[in-house]
UniProtKB/TrEMBL annotation:
Keywords: Metal-binding, Ubl conjugation pathway, Zinc, Zinc-finger
Listed GO biological process terms: regulation of DNA-templated transcription; response to hormone; response to hydrogen peroxide; response to salicylic acid
Annotated organism of origin: Panicum hallii var. hallii
Segments forming domain BTB: 95-163
Protein name per UniProt: BTB domain-containing protein
Keyword Transferase: no
Entry-linked Gene3D superfamilies: 1.25.40.420, Potassium Channel Kv1.1, Chain A, TAZ domain
TAZ-type domain sequence ranges: 269-368
Keyword Zinc-finger among UniProt keywords: yes
Domain of life of the organism encoding this protein: Eukaryota
Taxonomic lineage from the root: Eukaryota, Viridiplantae, Streptophyta, Embryophyta, Tracheophyta
Molecular function terms, GO-annotated: calmodulin binding; zinc ion binding
Length: 427
């Protein structure tokens, strides 16, 4: 008995519904593009003599490829067709194959359908024996109900949710053993969405490794790392430690790596917060020296008094206290007073970010600009790195050119650390 070979697209085609009649594309090496294609130029000349000639027709191969792509993108199997395939399996109409299971149950099906959907089943059918007019194969290692759900899926891609919940692990194994990728994708999706839990995640992780399901393995690993304290107390973890110590070691290494990445991420967020504070301090410093704020500002600026509206610069209050201390401190030595040291660092940082030193009203801006010319390469690189970090913390498009300017001064592969600036905003 010969097995009819059908294309899988005859059964399952994904896409949108087809509202128009089925279009059949015929192609011949000798006639395609000549007799089969109407002469549009002659038609246009007969009906409109003044109309320009249309563009040349596309080649045959291009037209065939374009037509097939369009048909694939706009086709979808209607529900009536799926109902027909589902009924074909459930009723066993003109079945020619018996699939037996471990408990002796026999499931009637069609060899052509199973052979098309699974290359493994096709190989089994080639060696199958014919008994009483039926080809006979055996599927072992799974309950008969799971095998029934599996074969039904080969026909119509349908399943009952209760059956999937009960046999999802067996169906995952069957889909892997018989190379049915569509069912394997469904099983992985169902496990991720509905069935993963701390008490079974270790077992599913081991099964995912056996069934070559890397995405499911990744999801399980993330769940174990995220709730390691709970998972490590389950029976599945205890059994895994005894029978698969290498997997336990791998999971522990992943846990350490995830914790290290979490610490690095937290450190970067804290650094970004400090750089953002420095940027706000630069804005507040320019605001005070140029416009004035409440009771502090340049000599030629009329102050608004302490009852003025709240300042929009969040760091203004801290900078105001720092400036007042700097103006009255008797030490005023960068290494002798901590507050004065903060102020010196702020002024130098501003001078490196300032693009108009000739008109800038911030004190000592031009002085530090001249001082920069006498710094060593290492010290210059540190300050340029700090300026880039401060500008990047704001993340605005207006400072892209400035970031590029300072980043070009930083040598490639440099690992120098920016100068450490203590907290500037103590009130």
């Amino acid at each position: 008995m010969e097995c009819l070979e059908l294309d899988s697209s005859d059964f399952f085609v994904e896409g949108d519904a087809i509202d128009s009649p089925l279009e059949i594309h015929l192609e011949s090496d000798s006639l395609a593009g000549t007799k089969a294609v109407p002469d549009h130029r002659r038609y246009a000349q007969l009906h409109c003599n003044n109309a320009p000639d249309p563009p040349p027709l596309p080649g045959t191969s291009y037209g065939a490829r374009r037509s097939s792509t369009k048909a694939k993108a706009c086709s979808r199997v209607p529900e009536e067709v799926l109902d027909s395939w589902d009924r074909l399996f459930l009723e066993g109409y003109q079945a020619d194959l018996r699939v037996s299971t471990d408990d002796g149950t026999e499931i009637l099906s069609h060899s052509c359908v199973l052979g098309v959907k699974s290359p493994v089943l096709r190989a089994m059918l080639e060696d199958a024996k014919l008994e009483h007019g039926f080809w006979c194969i055996r599927i072992s290692g799974a309950p008969s109900e799971a095998v029934h759900v599996f074969i039904r899926f080969l026909y119509s891609s349908r399943f009952e949710q209760e059956q999937m919940k009960k046999h999802v692990l067996h169906l995952l194994v069957l889909s892997h053993v018989f190379s049915v990728s569509s069912m394997k994708t469904v099983c992985i999706d169902q496990l991720e969405r509905n069935f993963l839990a701390p008490d079974n995640v270790v077992d599913i992780l081991q099964l995912a490794g056996l069934c070559d399901a890397p995405r499911l393995s990744l999801v399980c690993t993330r769940m174990i790392i995220g709730d390691f304290k709970t998972v490590s107390l389950t029976d599945g973890w205890k059994v895994m430690r005894r029978v698969n110590p290498s997997l336990e070691q791998k999971l522990l290494e992943s846990l350490v790596e995830a914790d290290t990445k979490r610490q690095v991420r937290a450190k970067r967020m804290e650094e970004k917060k400090v750089y953002l504070q420095l940027y706000e301090a630069m804005e507040a410093l320019i605001h005070i020296c140029r416009d004035g704020c409440r009771t502090i500002g340049p000599r030629d600026q009329a102050l608004k008094g302490s009852r003025a509206a709240v300042c929009k610069f969040p760091a203004c209050k801290g900078i105001e206290l720092l400036v007042r201390h700097f103006s009255t401190c008797s030490v005023r030595v960068p290494g002798g007073c901590a507050n004065c040291k903060r102020m010196w660092q702020l002024l130098e940082l501003h001078s490196r970010m300032c693009l108009t030193p000739d008109t800038c009203k911030v004190p000592l801006c031009r002085h530090f600009k001249e001082k920069m010319q006498h710094l060593g390469r290492k010290e210059e690189t540190k300050w340029n790195l700090l300026v880039c970090k401060v500008l990047e913390s704001r993340g605005t498009m207006g400072f892209i050119s400035e970031r590029r300017k300072f980043s070009t001064l930083k040598p490639a592969g440099s690992r120098h650390v920016a100068p450490r600036l203590v907290d500037l905003f103590e009130t």
